[in-house]
Amino acid sequence: MPSLGADMEAGTLVEWLVKPGDQVKRGDVVAVVETQKGAIEIEVFEAGKIEQILVDLNTKVAVGTPLARIRTELEGPLGAVTAAPSPAAPVIPLAPPPLVRAPVAPPPPVARGAARARVSPAARRLAETHAIDLSTVTGSGPVGEIIYSDVERRLGQAVAPPEKKRAPWLDLDAMRAAIAAAMARSKREIPHYYLEHQVDVTVCEQWLTQRNATLSPDSRLLIGALTIRAVALAARRFPAFNGFYRDGKFEQASAVHAGVAIAIRGGGLAAPALHDADQISVDELMAGMRDLVQRTRAGRIRSSEISDPTITITSLGERGVEALYGIIYPPQVAIVGFGKIVTRPWVVDGAIGPRSVVTITLSADHRVSDGHAGALFLAEIGRLLQEPDKL
Amino acid sequence: MNDLDIRKVVQEELNNIAPEVDLATVDPAGDLRETLDIDSMDFLNFITAIHHRLGVEIPELDYPKLVTLDGAVAYIAAKLGSSKM
C-alpha cells in the first residue's frame, strides 16, 4: 500500500484490475485504493508477472503492506516479492515478505443475524450510505465477514454502476479532512512569502482565437494550457520553485510535474500532476488536462499523479476574482495562482488602450527561496506569455 | 429533429457535466455558467459533446450564443435547419 500523502496511514483496496498470471509493465494500473482523497488508481513500478494477490478486496491495510507478489523478468523462478510502492512517496514500503495464508475452504455463509458478524470498512460504509441494516446481510468473506460485494448484492439493482456520474467513493467530507490536514501543516511549517504580477495576456487571447477558429472542439486549446506551459518552462529555469522540502532540506526535482488544482463539484479540491509539463507540447498539455479533469471529477486519479507534483498551479477561471494567494501543498515549495482575466486600460507603446490583464501570484517557501528570486520567476512567466507561439 | 429533441440532448449533456442539477428548475434564459457553476473546461466539453452528437459546427466566436438553455437550443435548431436547406 503506497503512501499517497504524508497524512495517509491506511487505504482500502476496492478493486483489482489484474489477476495472478497477468503480465504487467511499469506504469500499468493494477488496483484501485480508496483513501481520503478518493479512489486512487495504483500503478505498478516493475515489469513482471503477477504471482499472487496478497490483499483481498475491500480490505483496509496499513501503508507499507505488500498488495501483491510480482515475479520480475530478471529474477529466477524463486522468491521475488514486490509490493506496488510509489517511488516518489514519502514512505517506501519495505515490509518483509508477508506470511501467506494457506488457502482454506470457504466456511459456510454466516446465517442472518449471526452474532457480531465482522464487516469490512468498505462494506460498512456502503451499508451506511444506503441505510442497510447489516444484520440483514449475509457474509461471504473467508471467515464469514460481510464484504463489499455482499452489501452490493443486498442492494440489488439499487446500486449505481461505479463509473457513472460521481463515483460513490468520492467522499467529499473525507476530502475536506485531507485538505484541512495538508493546509494546516503547510501554514504551521512553511514560512510563505507572496508576490503578485499583472500581465497583459491579450496576445495569448488573440493567438488562441486565431488558432481555435479552424479547429474542431476536440482540438481547441484553453488559455490554461498556455499558462501551465509557461509556469513549467519558468520552473525549469528557476529550480528553487520546483521540488520538495523534506527532512530539513530542499530537494530540487529533476522533472517538472505540474500539479493542477481541480475543483470538484460539491466542494472538493485535488491537484494531481500533469507529468513533464515542460517537455510536452501545448496540445499534449491540453489533452492531458482534459483527461485529468475528467478523471479527477469522476474520482479516478492515479497514484503517481497524487505523489508526483513538483509545483502547483491554480486558476480561478473566468468567473472568479482578480487574484488569489495560494497555500503551498507540502512538501512542495511553491504555488502559482492565476486570477480571472479582466479588461483594463493599459499603456502599450505610449498609448492607452483596453487590454486583457491577468494577475499572477506566487506563494513560495522562504526556507528555500527569497522574494528576489521569486520576482524573477514570476516575471519570466509573464515574459513567456508574450510569445504564445513559442510555448 | 425538433426543438424538443434538441432540448433533450442539450439537457442530457449538461447533466453529464452537472449531474446533481435538476434542469427542469433552471431558468432557460439564465447564464448556464452561473446557474450550473461550470467552468471553461466544462463548457468546452459541452460544445464538444454537442458537436459529436448532432454534427453541429460551433465556432468559438458563437459561444456567447450558447450560454443559456434557450439560446443553445435556438442556435442548434438554426444550424440544423440551415444545413438541411
Q: If helices are DSSP runs of H or I spanning 4 or more residues, what is the number of helices of chain B?
A: 4
Oligomer: heterodimer
> How confident is the prediction overall: mean pLDDT of chain A?
83
Compute the CA-based radius of gyration of chain A: 24 Å
Shape descriptor of chain B reads globular
Largest sheet of chain B: none
How widely separated are the two ends of chain A?
Answer: 38 Å
- Helix and strand content put the structural class of chain B at mainly alpha
Helicity level of chain B: 55-70%
Ends distance of chain B: 14 Å
CATH topology of the largest domain in chain A: Chloramphenicol Acetyltransferase
Tally the helices of chain A: 8
CATH architecture designation of chain B: Orthogonal Bundle
The percent range for helix content of chain A is 10-25%
Q: What composes the largest sheet of chain A?
A: 7 strands, mixed
Beta-strand portion of chain A reads 25-35%
Order of helices and strands of chain B: HHHH
User: What's the total count of β strands of chain B?
Assistant: 0
Please give a structural write-up.
The complex is a heterodimer of chains A (391) and B (85). With 391 residues, chain A is α+β, with helices and mostly antiparallel strands. Chain A contains eight helices and 19 strands. In chain A, a hairpin with a 2-residue loop joins strand 9 and strand 10. In chain A, helix 1 runs parallel beside helix 2 and helix 5 crosses helix 6. The radius of gyration of chain A is 24 Å and the shape is elongated. About 13% of the residues of chain A have low confidence. Chain B contains four helices and no strands. The model of chain B has no long low-confidence stretch (mean pLDDT 90). The chains are: A alpha+beta (391), B mainly alpha (85).
Structural topology:
The complex is a heterodimer of chains A (391) and B (85).
Chain A: E1 10-16, E2 23-24, E3 29-35, E4 38-43, E5 48-53, E6 59-62, E7 68-72, H1 121-129, H2 148-155, H3 172-189, E8 192-200, H4 202-212, H5 223-237, E9 243-246, E10 249-252, E11 258-260, E12 262-264, E13 268-270, E14 273-274, H6 282-297, E15 301-302, H7 303-307, E16 311-315, E17 334-338, E18 342-348, E19 351-365, H8 371-384
Parallel strand pairs in A: 4-15, 11-16, 16-17
Antiparallel strand pairs in A: 1-3, 1-6, 2-5, 3-4, 5-7, 8-19, 9-10, 11-14, 12-13, 17-19, 18-19
Helix pairs in contact in A: 1-2, 5-6, 5-8
Chain B: H1 3-17, H2 32-35, H3 40-54, H4 69-84
Helix pairs in contact in B: 1-3, 1-4
